[in-house]
Amino acid sequence: MPIMLTRIDDRLIHGQVVEGWVKAIDVNHIIVISDEVANDKMQQALLSMAVPSSITVTVLSIDDAARVLQENKYAKDNLLLLLSRPADVVRLLYYGVAITSVNLGGMHYSQGKTQLLRNLSVNEADVDALFAISAKGVELEGRILPRDERIDVIEILREKFNR
Amino acid sequence: MKIRDFISVFLRSFALQAVWNFERMQNIGFAYALLPALTALYPDPRKRTEALMRHLEFFNVHPYMVNIILGTVIRTEQEISSGNTSLTETVNNTKNAMAGPLAAIGDVFFWATFRPFMVLVAVGIMLAVLRFNLDRFLPLAPLFFIVVYNVIQIGFRLISFLAVYRSHEAIVLVIQNMKFQNMLDRIRFLGMATLISVMGFYFISYSRNMYDGTCFLLVFMGSIFMGSTKLPPAVVFYAVLLSGVVMYMIRGYG
Amino acid sequence: MEIFYLILLAAIISIDITAYGQFMVSRPIFCAPLFGWLLGDIQTGLWVGMLIELIWVSVIPMGTAVPVDATSIAILTLIWSLSTFPGQKSAVITAMVFAVPASILFRKLDILSRMYNVRVAHWVEEGVLNGEPRRLQYSVYLGILLFFFKALAFYGVLVFLGMGVMRVVFPQLPNAVIAGFTTSWRLLPVAGFGMFLVNFWFGKVLGINK
User: Fold this and answer.
1) What is the pLDDT of residue B79?
2) Using the beta-carbon criterion (under 8 Å), do A16 and C203 form an inter-chain contact?
3) Residues of A in contact with B170 (CB under 8 A)
4) Interface test with B, best of C13, C136, C175 (most B CBs within 10 A)
5) Does some domain include residue C49?
């Protein structure tokens, strides 16, 4: 079950993901890990329509995803794990799922957030979760596309929030 | 709402990216396009402001797909304006749930598949015109591209706008019926077939001898190799220039 | 003077890239022959348009990822070469050598405009909250004008800069380079076909992981 990429993106599947990442890193199976989407049939239908026919999309709640990943159920697929927020990644890690690097592809602006990078806006809860992820030894890099430079997000957070 | 309002929304949708900003992306353009509809649905300025503020949140979608979302939102706002205020929360959730996948479909279908395919066809026409010295037809390729491409673009925007607004089915089914992934596969296949034809024509027309032919093959394979790596196209460009100089120096021709 | 009209046209066409419509008039496949024709050599315009479209076929805008600007590569290449050394393929290629890095500047200006627009967006939001939805349309006009003036400034400066550079550099190029560039004229479309193939292929190409 090679996990080719674990990505945090609150828009989940969109242009950059399909056209920019999936092709470039040779992924054939996207696992959307989100409690909300796991309960939303409409979103599930929309997400599966958004990808070419050669790619499979599976939507799982965080608990189910942790179990499935531990069981190594998709051993033969090149996986892209898509999560919508850092707090969800923290939960996955808590279950013991082996993730070494997380790509911060998109955390978009909404009222009350601070915008740090073009593709990264955070609030208190996000910052806490991101530090929690880093504390487990997981790399947090902020590439928008695969060819971009791997920005060290923790550095930026430390500078901005004096932690 | 009158026809005039729909036309206004439709025309304004072309300015979706006029105030593209890094914080909320196409939010201004979307609200701008939606305004005629909101003005018609909410005569009370305070309700109108409320509705507008709802739609100034973060938003990003492929520009040709925005009419699908506009149609959906107008329908939802019609319900809200006639009293169903429980939908004020969900209108943005639906909007955002649709925007991501539509952006994916749009980027892959229009930008990455349809446009390159049309470009390739135009290139083929252009090469034929050049090769057969049909000087009067020189403008044909670019004009063909612009006309056909825009008939399809504008046609799609209009048809999807109307289809989504008029349909009584769930939006998801409407989008499903547009069968993008099918069309995508077919255009990809056509694109490959066109590429082979255009390449063959080019090789026959512009390669004068064995040395030329070999150079072409080497450059072709080299570009495939380089294109498959992470190198940017500019590097491929400069590499070809370098090869050009080298190939000249080996054989002394131009 | 003709050059000023060309600069104006370049700025107007650049509106199509992001600000309005995306009718693809800004794409090299259309604007290159257009500029070629206006400069007296439509065939060169057609060829340059083909080259750029094919080699940069994989470059597309995706959300916050602002792409390389193919329009400026096309327009600068044509204006620079056809107004200084018309009729020489090697001059066109030389111009392109400089146009490719110049487009990086265009992209940077584009990103700056998008950052500035955040302020415009805040201004609009404030207006709407205070019952002035007309700020929406004002901002749209402003936005289009901003993209226009950014392009106007860019082309205004770079067109003359590049023409100067061409006049100095091109005559000094060694014969091997000039002849090599003339050879590249026919090789570049081939590389373009290769790039197109890579972009359109379904899965792995030649077993190489992308």
Assistant:
1) 87
2) no
3) 42
4) C136
5) yes
Q: What is the mean pLDDT of residues B233-244?
A: 94
- B230 lies in a domain? no
| Residue C206: per-residue pLDDT | 32
Q: Which amino acid is at B9?
A: V
A-B Cβ pairs (cutoff 8 Å, strict): 87
Classify residue B123: in a domain, yes or no. Answer: yes
Instruction: Please give the tally of structural domains in chain B.
Output: 1
Torsion of CA C168, C171, C175, C180, to 10 degrees: 70
- Residue-wise pLDDT for C159-197, tens only, equals 999 999 999 999 999 988 999 999 999 999 999 999 999
Complex prediction ipTM: 0.91
Contact A19 B97 (CB under 8 A): no
Domain-embedded: residue C129: no
Give the A window 124-153 contacts with B, CB below 8 Å: 146-147
Domain range for C15 is 2-113+155-201
Query: Does A16 sit within 8 Å of C62, measured CB to CB?
Result: yes
Nearest residue of A to residue C201, measured between CA atoms: A23
Total number of domains in chain C? 1
Region for residue A162 given its phi and psi (left: phi exceeds 0; alpha: psi -120 to 50; beta: otherwise):
left
Is-contact C30 C49, C-beta < 8 A?
Answer: yes
Residue C127 inside a domain? The answer is no
Range of the domain at B153: 1-179
Chain B residue with Cα closest to C124: B28
Q: Is the pLDDT assigned to residue C205 strictly greater than 60?
A: no
Answer yes or no: is C38 within a domain. Answer: yes
User: Is residue B135 included in any domain, yes or no?
Assistant: yes
Q: From CA B200, how far away is CA B228, in angstroms rounded?
A: 22
Residue B22 lies in a domain: yes
End-to-end CA distance of chain A: 35
String of DSSP letters for C88-104: -HHHHHHHHHHHHHHHH
Residues C59, C19: contact at Cβ < 8 Å?
no
Question: Does residue A29 carry a catalytic annotation?
Answer: no
> Which one of A12, A46, A150 makes the best mutation probe of the B interface by having the most chain B beta carbons within 10 Å?
A46
pLDDT(B74) > 50? yes
Please name which of B83, B229, B75, B85 lies closest in space to residue B163, comparing C-alpha atoms. Answer: B75
Write out pLDDT tens, residues A9-21: 999 998 888 888 8
Average pLDDT value for chain C: 91
- Report the pLDDT value the prediction gives residue C204, as an integer from 0 to 100: 36
User: Is the Cβ pair A15, B108 closer than 8 Å?
Assistant: yes
Among the listed residues A1, A10, A14, A131, the single catalytic one is A14
Say what the pTM is. 0.90
Scanning A6-45 for CB atoms below 8 A from B yields 11-19, 24, 40, 42-43, 45
- pLDDT tens digits, residue range B20-73? 999 999 999 999 999 999 999 999 888 889 899 989 999 999 999 999 999 999
